Amino acid sequence: MYYTTPHSTTGKTPTELLYGKTIRSKIPSLGDIATAPPVSDYRDRDQLLKEKVKACEDEKRRAMVSDIVVGDKVLMKNLLPGNKLQTPFGPTEYIVKRKTGASVVIEDSDGVQYERNVSHLKKVQKDADDADVTPGKVHNPQPGPSRPRKRKTEFQGGVVTRARKRREEKKRCGSESEG
Which ranges in the chain are annotated with CATH 2.30.30? Predict the structure, then answer.
């Protein structure tokens, strides 16, 4: 039964993919008449479905491409913090010397080089206050929140709909992958 059942992703039976021909099973079907497999476009379909699943997962996990480039000043993450009051990133600034994919080589002021993953680095933002100050102009920066505010959760009949949103997202992602 397994060898004669088409797979949901490829649309082909395992024997068609492995041997290039269909085999008969104990259950009769109309497919037994034609023994030659159709055109093999299963690789294209498989690749298309994998791309859809990847896009859905990237959206769900909020995956982004790193904006760190060669020459940027970055801070390195404290991988072994002493206690919970210590900052997650060290105070030393490093300069990015080389970047290959997610691997980055950074150098400190003493010339010591380290190789780290991009996820362990944080780009140092240039002060906009220093660049925008001109003589004779009063600069009043607006105080803003230190972190983005959470959106209020919708209530419906006294029940939080966050779980419903998650279910709808899973259903939407699942329906795209079956396309």
Answer: 72-123
CA-CA distance, 105 to 95, in Å (whole number)? 9
Hey, what CATH topology would domain 72-123 get? SH3 type barrels. (2.30.30)
Q: Give the phi and the psi of residue 161 in degrees, each rounded to 5.
A: -100, 15
pLDDT in tens, 104-138: 999 999 999 999 999 999 999 876 555 544 444 44
Q: In the 8-state DSSP scheme, what is residue 82?
A: S
| Of residues 105, 107, 122, 106, the one with CA closest to residue 66 | 122
Q: Are strands 159-160 and 121-123 parallel, antiparallel or unpaired?
A: unpaired
Could you tell me the CA-to-CA distances from 103 to 21, 35, 68 in Å, in that order?
45, 50, 11
Strand partners, 95: 73, 107
75 contacts 121 by C-beta, under 8 angstroms? yes
Q: Give pLDDT tens digits for 61-89.
A: 988 888 899 999 999 999 887 888 888 99
Place of tokens 């240039």: 126
| Other Cβ atoms within 10 Å of 128 Cβ, number | 10
**CA Rg value for the chain:** 28
Looking at the DSSP bridge assignments, the partners of residue 149 are none
